[in-house]
Each structure stands twice: as structure tokens, then as C-alpha cells.
Amino acid sequence: MSFDNLETLYRQVIMDHYKNPRNRGSFEEESLTINMNNPTCGDRIQLHLLVEDNQVKDAKFDGEGCSISLSSASMMTQAVKGRTVNEALEMSQMFSDMMLGKDVDTEKHEFGDIEALQGVAKFPARIKCATLAWKAMEKGIKEQEQA
Ligand code: ZN
User: Fold this and answer.
1) If 65 and its partner were Cys, which of 23, 46, 69, 71 is the partner (CB 3.0–4.6 Å)?
2) Which residue ranges of the chain lie beneath pLDDT 70?
């Protein structure tokens, strides 16, 4: 696939998650809730996690913001569901590395749609949009571990 075609494909994947977000909403049962904002862009995310026995049982989000922040939240919730806490944290680290333009082994944790965001690394002003939901997930897990 040529570079231009890949860019187009990635843009389509991002817009699909933006327009049809996965895991939007909240839980009826008690869950971890983390609010995180990205004031430079105006993105606001409320992430809900069900964490039990060191596993992310389920994840949902609410919020408003740009296509990058909301599609990333959609992809992140999809990706970490059913993962162990350690896997989820490792994926978050890999995603941060990806945003720094580093080569990451995306096969290891089946990044799937998340790879569509790798182009964001070329736009430093948008990196915080892409990492917002991931940072919220990290914060929630760390708070739970301390509780
Ligand atoms: Zn944004």
C-alpha cells in the first residue's frame, strides 16, 4: 500500500471511531471514574473502568472533544477490555512511545485500529489529544492500586 493510501485508510479508521464510538456511556454498577481534560484543545473525557482481580473487565467513556481525542478513547476502551492491568499499562506505555515516533511492537498486544493514530506523532500539538484517554486509564488503575 502506498503511503498516501495508508494515510487515507488511517483517516477513515479515525473518523469511523469518532462518528461511531465504541463503548460510549457509563456503567450502572460502581466503577472507577476518571475525569481528564486537555485544555489546549478543549477535550474532556470521563472514563469509566470496571477493574477486578487485576483485570480490566470493562471500559466505557463519555466526553466531548476533537476527532483525535474521542476516536482514541473509543479505540483504547476497545483495546484494554479483558486485558490484565499490567497489559493495559504496558499498552499505554507503548502508545506513548508511538506518539514519540518510536518503533513499537504493535503485534505484541494487537494494537489493531490504534495503529491508525500513529500519524499523530507528526503533529506534536495533537499528541495530548491522542494520549488523553490512555492517561485517564493509567490514572484510574494507579488510584485503584493505592486504595
Ligand atoms: Zn483534541
Assistant:
1) 69
2) 1, 3
